[in-house]
Structures are given as structure tokens and as C-alpha cells.
């Protein structure tokens, strides 16, 4: 954790960035030092992260940017989620017998939605940034052209997706070494991606979605069996959406709204917990009540949530106190509720564990919490020749067929069925949590576990924790189905485990720790700014400035 003394009041005086990779954090601070604001820094971090962590994000993917503008308090969610191509249809991943074809929604260009990230970066620069887009992209261009060293995480992710990357010669040429996982320290250079980023900086939206680069993308996709058209690219639009807002015991929560399920589920859980004095309860009872609230919120994701441009959702009811009271009335204080007893249609699929998050606060008080993704590690594994753009496989986040699991083992409902131009449901939950004294900027990757990890981080903050406390807290999770508590091995002591089991909970310890949270906390009273990157990952948090 890094601390910076800041001027007390509405201007922190210190700037802080916490991201999943040291080179991405460095890129953001470089742009702040050149006179950019938090929104310019967000562009720099996003683009740099896409270069050095091609398994977790990039301009071939999308994401959500939660923004707070200090000068007028304006808050918005920038929706850069991918969209389904116009030729996509509900049954596109089914065989003649109506069965899901394994891998078709996960590997190759047919699994790729139309990327939203380039448009999101352009929108940030044009409407919120202070510097030209080309300046904010410059660090990423340099990293792509000069290269970066392969680290152990890159090697692990490349080994996991080696078959998919080797299936497409351009991706293998750029990201592997003679068809094998590159040795640690190998320099990965991406000159085509550098050219693409330069073009985006120079030409803006048209530099990616129209013209020569668009021709290359569509030609490459279609030659490899995909269905993109030039019209699909030209029609893509970023959407600014009102964030989800809630309150919990004097704290204000601002989080991602649909097509992310994160904010709605987060507020639904907190509304149920608000009536309990959690701090006064023993550990097992506290966990039991939190798990039961998680169970009910995750059930509702399946029933109601999807792309707001396609699906009508009763959001006010879902996040209302009366609804929470009804849910809470079904929670037995001493017994787990079997998920099979809670009526539900189906459970929606989550997105990849390999999503990425970063948090930014500048010296003026502007804030960004951004969660970005290309879905599965290295996305679809497909790179259009001559572009350097590694494409997402976000189409797997749709319900390929209601009732049939996606790659992560969960199944989806009609609200998240494939349709042309539709945005797939997400679990990404960039969030602000604040009261009149302190502010937290947080988020994490982690697929279906994202929402509960942000919940635990938010509760830690509300209990007085600083940034390091938020990112290091041991984690547990329940998502309705499978009906089990997943937890890190150090999350519970023996007595808590015994009590949870006695209440009827199924316990599922996880061999590996999960999540990669990055948080910034600003204490307005003391002027202190803290920033921390999750020790579970390789990220870096840096605070600059202040007294």
C-alpha cells in the first residue's frame, strides 16, 4: 500500500492509480504528469494494460467506466460493452439437433462481439479528458512498439490458451514463440497494434470503425469464419448510462448499471443486510446472513437482468426497501435455504476471471473506476492480420441456449439470449462508496465472483478500512447455483466452518485465491490518500503529490 498526504477538503491534492500491471500504472501517472486528468489517465491505463496484459483486456474488447467529475459532481457510467453482430441470432451456436456446439462461442472470430473499447477511449478523450487522445495513447504505443517482458502470469495464461492461440497464425506469431509459451523475460513486440493505436489517436472513431483498419478487421474475421460486417463496426455507439445508486447505513453506493448486473445485485444484497447489526454477530452468523443475501440477489439476476435497450427490468422494485424486506423475511437465522427451494428460471453466465480493473483519483478529485475485459484469457485467440487487434469472445456471455451451461458452468435465461446489436450481460462492478468523510474507488475481475468481492471490499471500507484492507481481505462467495459457499482457505476459522456446515451450507474451499482488486481511498478529513493493488496479482498502486 502507498500513502500520500493530501490537502483536506474537496481537492485531494494527491493523485493515485492502482492497476493490474506496473507498466499500466506507470502509463497513467506519465499522463497525469503531462497535465492530463483522471480521465486521460484512464485512457492511458486501459490502452497500456491491453498491450502488456493481452489476456485480460485490450481494444478488441470492452468494459464499463464509472466516472466522477469533480467540478460539478457529475457521475455517469460509460458503457463500452461489446455488441452482437447484425447477423447473430439466438441459435447460432447450436447444431441441427438444437444442442450447443462446444467451443464455438469461445474460440475464433465467430465468438467475437463488436468491440466497444476504442469508442469508449475516444469518448473519454472528447468529452472528459484534457489532452488529445493521441497524447493519452502515447505510452501504450511505445510499449507496443518497443515491447515488454513476459512475466509468470503471461506464461500461465498463454499455456492455458495455447491451443486457441496456435489455431490462428497471426496471434501465434505475435504472442507466442515458435508456437510455444515464451520464456520469462522474452520481449513481446506488437508493431501492428502500435500502428492501430496511433491511427485511433490520429483519426478517432473513424480510425477504428471505418476506413482501412475496419476493412482489414472485417476481411480477416470473415475469411476465418466470422460474421462481422463493415456496417456492424460503423454502427457501434458508446452509451452513457445513469449508474446504479444505493444507500447503506449512511454510505452512498454508486456502481455499474445494466447491462452489468453488478450494481443491482450489490445494492440488493446491501438492502437485505441493512437491518442486521453485523458487527454484533458472531462470525458464523454474519457469514450465514451474507451468504443468504447473496443467494437471493444472484437468483434475481437470472430472472430480470439484461441489456436495457432490449429488456424491460423492474430495477426500482429490485432495489427497493420493500422488496428487500420480503427477501429478508425468507432468511432463516439458523438454517441455509436450499437454492432449489427458491423459484427461478435460470442463472445467467458470468464473464471471465481474466477481466481487469483499475482505479484512478487525480489531484482535483476526478475519479474513475473501470473494469475492462476480452472475456476468456486471450479472448477468442483470433487476431486479424495486419491490425494487432486480439478479438474478444464475449458472445459466450450470452445464453447460447437457455438451460445449457457456458464455459464457466452457469446457464442463462431468455433475458440474455443472443440478438443482433444486443449487449451481453456482465458481472463487472466498478464502484464508488462514500460518505461525507471518506471515498473509496474499487473493483476487481473474477467472473461471477466480482459482485461479492466488491461487496466484501465495500463492507471493509465502511468498517474503516484503508485501501490495503480492502484488497487483502479474505474472500467468500455464493451465487445461488452451484449451491455452495466458495471461499479462500484463510477466510474462516474451524469454528465458523463447523457452524456453517451445521446450518446446512455446503462448503467448497478453493485451492487458489481469487480476484485482483485495485482500490483508492481518500479521507477528506485527514487529507490522506491510500492506494493498493491486490497481492494476489502483480499490479502496482502509486500515490503522487500532496504535502
What value does the average pLDDT take? Answer: 93
* Biggest sheet record: 7 strands, antiparallel
- Low-confidence residue ranges: 405-412
- The Rg value, from CA coordinates, equals 22 Å
Shape: globular
Count of helices? 18
| Strand line-up of the largest beta sheet | 1-18-17-13-12-9-8
Q: Level of helix content?
A: 25-40%
Q: Roughly what fraction of the amino acids lie in strands?
A: 15-25%
By DSSP, the count of extended strands is 19
What are the key terms here?
34% helix, seven-stranded antiparallel sheet, globular, alpha+beta, 547 residues
What does this entry look like structurally?
The chain is α+β, with helices and mostly antiparallel strands. It has 18 helices and 19 strands. It has a seven-stranded antiparallel sheet. The longest helix is centred in the middle third of the chain and has 22 residues. The chain starts with a strand and ends with a strand.
Amino acid at each position: 500500500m502507498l500513502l500520500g498526504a493530501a490537502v483536506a477538503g474537496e481537492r485531494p491534492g494527491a493523485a493515485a492509480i492502482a492497476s493490474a500491471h506496473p507498466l499500466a500504472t506507470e502509463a497513467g501517472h506519465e499522463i497525469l504528469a503531462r497535465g492530463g486528468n483522471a480521465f486521460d489517465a484512464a485512457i492511458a491505463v486501459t490502452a497500456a494494460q491491453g498491450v502488456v496484459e493481452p489476456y485480460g483486456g485490450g481494444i478488441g474488447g470492452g468494459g464499463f467506466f464509472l466516472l466522477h467529475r469533480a467540478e460539478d459532481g457529475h457521475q455517469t457510467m460509460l458503457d463500452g460493452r461489446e455488441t452482437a453482430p447484425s447477423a447473430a441470432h439466438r441459435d447460432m451456436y447450436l447444431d441441427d439437433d438444437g444442442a450447443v456446439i462446444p467451443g464455438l462461442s469461445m474460440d475464433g472470430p465467430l465468438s467475437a462481439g463488436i468491440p466497444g473499447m476504442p469508442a469508449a477511449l475516444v469518448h473519454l478523450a472528447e468529452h472528459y479528458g484534457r489532452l488529445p487522445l493521441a497524447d493519452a495513447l502515447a505510452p501504450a504505443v511505445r510499449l507496443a512498439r518497443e515491447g515488454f517482458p513476459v512475466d509468470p502470469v503471461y506464461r500461465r495464461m498463454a499455456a492455458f490458451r495455447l491451443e486457441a492461440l496456435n489455431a490462428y497464425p497471426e496471434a501465434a506469431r505475435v504472442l507466442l514463440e515458435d508456437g510455444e509459451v515464451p520464456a520469462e523475460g522474452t520481449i513481446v513486440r506488437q508493431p501492428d497494434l502500435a500502428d492501430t493505436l496511433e491511427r485511433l489517436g490520429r483519426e478517432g472513431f473513424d480510425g477504428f470503425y471505418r476506413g482501412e483498419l475496419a476493412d482489414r478487421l472485417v476481411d480477416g474475421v470473415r475469411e476465418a469464419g466470422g460474421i462481422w460486417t463493415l456496417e456492424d463496426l460503423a454502427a457501434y455507439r458508446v452509451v452513457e448510462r445513469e449508474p446504479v445508486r444505493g444507500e447503506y447505513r449512511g454510505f452512498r453506493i454508486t456502481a455499474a448499471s445494466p447491462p452489468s448486473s453488478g450494481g443491482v445485485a450489490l445494492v440488493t444484497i446491501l438492502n437485505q443486510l441493512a437491518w442486521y447489526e453485523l458487527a454484533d454477530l458472531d462470525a458464523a452468523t454474519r457469514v450465514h446472513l451474507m451468504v443468504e443475501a447473496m443467494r437471493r440477489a444472484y437468483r434475481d439476476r437470472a430472472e430480470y437482468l439484461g441489456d436495457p435497450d432490449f429488456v424491460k427490468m423492474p430495477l426500482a422494485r429490485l432495489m427497493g426497501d420493500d422488496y428487500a424486506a420480503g427477501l429478508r423475511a425468507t432468511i432463516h437465522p439458523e438454517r441455509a435455504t436450499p437454492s432449489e427451494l427458491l423459484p427461478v428460471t435460470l442463472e445467467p453466465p458470468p464473464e471471465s476471471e481474466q477481466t481487469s480493473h483499475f482505479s484512478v483519483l487525480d489531484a482535483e478529485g476526478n475519479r474513475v473506476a473501470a473494469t475492462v475485459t476480452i472475456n476468456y484469457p486471450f479472448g477468442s485467440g483470433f487476431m486479424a492480420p495486419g491490425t494487432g487487434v486480439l478479438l474478444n469472445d464475449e458472445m459466450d456471455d450470452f445464453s447460447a441456449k437457455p438451460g445449457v451451461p457456458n464455459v464457466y458452468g452457469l446457464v442463462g435465461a431468455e433475458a440474455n439470449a443472443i440478438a443482433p446489436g444486443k449487449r451481453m450481460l456482465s458481472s463487472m462492478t466498478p464502484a464508488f462508496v462514500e460518505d461525507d468523510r471518506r471515498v473509496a474507488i474499487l473493483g476487481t475481475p473474477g467472473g461471477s465472483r466480482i459482485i461479492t468481492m466488491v461487496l466484501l471490499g465495500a463492507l471493509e471500507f465502511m468498517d474503516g478500512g484503508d485501501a490495503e484492507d480492502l484488497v487483502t481481505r479474505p474472500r467468500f462467495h455464493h451465487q445461488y447455483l452451484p449451491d455452495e459457499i466458495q471461499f479462500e482457505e484463510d477466510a474462516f476459522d474451524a469454528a465458523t466452518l463447523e457452524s456453517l456446515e451445521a446450518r446446512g451450507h455446503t462448503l467448497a474451499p478453493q485451492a487458489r485465491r481469487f480476484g485482483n482488486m485495485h482500490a483508492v481511498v481518500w479521507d477528506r478529513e485527514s487529507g490522506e490518500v491510500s492506494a493498493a493493488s491486490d497481492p494476489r496479482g502483480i499490479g502496482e498502486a502509486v500515490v503522487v503529490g500532496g504535502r
